[in-house]
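Quick one, tokens below:
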């Protein structure tokens, strides 16, 4: 395979804060690369340096042996396409109009799309299974559908390199597998190189060829999947004990999470804990509580959700709703019962859409009980609100009475 992307001694600071340090890497054509690491280690910043959304203080990034500093943004967009975490739009566009925006780098100013541009947009709308939505307003789409639209728009640029920032973070588990399968096929069948920031180690293990582990703002380990995903590396990077075995069918590592390291034998302040989570945001919390010996309930979660699967495997009580369905009144009542019986409630860093908004409503209804509430607030709620602001009012009303934890590790000081 030919060398597509080369990074040498890259350093990036935000004001006086070091975000990336001494980054060196080689990415080859048709690689599917997963970037893993704790929150705040520089994963998103690395992508933003590669696509020139940020400019490093030192170091060089080469694309096809050419320094990207020499590329004008419009030219670079013909080779590198990005799907960011935030796929929200505030303007009324149809799906087709959004996907056609990907053709802009190939058009001159004021030039209208030609037959070939429409054909390329159609090709990738069909590839991402959104062709039937082409005349629908993007504001009316679900989070998963909107994610597909933005990926189709990026593919319409006809890039050699596709960058994705946590593309599965707001998707149910079945959609996560389907999406990563589509991305894998892009590498195998269309010679597109994919670099994706992922938060689920097992998903990365199932689909990626190579892994970059970031820790303390630098590369801790990089290389073929089988060499990087091992118990020592995961323990050192994520501060969690795991057991790894190789799947017979796929010959890929499968990670079993054993629990957070340290503090497991300290006295417990509570007996029963209820966790509001979803989309994989509660996995570490659930595993930690299991190893601490808490009686745990979780919900409301859709069947098939990553956190639903984790809670079930750990033997917790789960208030569950049908897959891809909004929370029903019966499940609200059941959820309130579990919350009321808990000694403490943990709200994880979960995004809110109209499907799970009622979890916040449940929490607000029990404020008069003066329960101990913990908010794991690794990112601000504005970046996680997909309800056009409806979630914000409930969130901030509850937040006034909550203990704010800015990262997962802070949980160990209270539970």
């Amino acid at each position: 395979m030919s060398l597509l992307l080369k990074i040498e001694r890259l350093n990036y600071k935000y004001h006086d804060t070091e975000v990336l340090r001494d980054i060196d890497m080689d990415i080859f054509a048709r690689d599917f690369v997963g970037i893993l690491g704790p929150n705040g280690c520089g994963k998103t910043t690395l992508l933003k340096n590669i696509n020139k959304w940020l400019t490093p203080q030192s170091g060089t990034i080469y694309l096809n042996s050419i320094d990207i500093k020499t590329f004008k943004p419009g030219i670079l967009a013909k080779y590198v396409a990005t799907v960011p975490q935030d796929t929200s739009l505030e303007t009324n566009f149809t799906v087709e109009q959004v996907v056609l925006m990907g053709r802009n780098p190939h058009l001159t100013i004021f030039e209208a799309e030609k037959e070939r541009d429409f054909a390329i947009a159609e090709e990738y709308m069909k590839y991402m299974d959104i062709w039937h939505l082409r005349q629908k307003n993007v504001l009316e789409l679900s989070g998963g559908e909107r994610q597909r639209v933005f990926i189709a728009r990026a593919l319409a640029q006809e890039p050699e390199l596709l960058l994705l920032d946590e593309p599965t973070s707001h998707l149910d588990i079945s959609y996560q597998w389907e999406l990563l399968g589509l991305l894998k096929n892009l590498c195998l069948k269309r010679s597109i190189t994919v670099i994706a920031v992922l938060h689920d180690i097992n998903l990365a293990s199932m689909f990626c060829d190579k892994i970059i582990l970031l820790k303390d703002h630098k590369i801790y380990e990089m290389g073929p999947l089988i060499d990087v995903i091992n118990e020592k590396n995961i323990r050192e990077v994520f501060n969690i004990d795991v057991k790894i075995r190789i799947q017979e069918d796929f010959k890929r590592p499968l990670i079993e999470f054993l629990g957070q390291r340290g503090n497991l034998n300290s006295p417990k302040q509570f007996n029963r804990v209820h966790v509001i989570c979803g989309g994989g945001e509660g996995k570490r919390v659930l595993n930690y509580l299991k190893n601490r010996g808490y009686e745990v309930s979780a919900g409301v979660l859709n069947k098939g959700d990553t956190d639903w699967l984790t809670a079930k495997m750990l033997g917790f009580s789960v208030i569950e709703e049908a897959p891809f369905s909004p929370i029903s009144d019966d499940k609200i009542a059941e959820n309130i019962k579990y919350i009321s019986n808990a000694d403490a409630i943990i709200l994880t860093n979960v995004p809110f859409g109209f499907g799970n908004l009622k979890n916040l409503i449940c929490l607000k209804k029990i404020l008069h009980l003066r329960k101990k509430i913990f908010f794991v607030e690794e990112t601000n709620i504005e970046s996680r609100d997909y309800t056009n602001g409806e979630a914000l009012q409930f969130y901030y009303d509850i937040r006034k009475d909550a203990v704010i934890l800015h990262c997962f590790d802070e949980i160990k000081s209270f539970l």
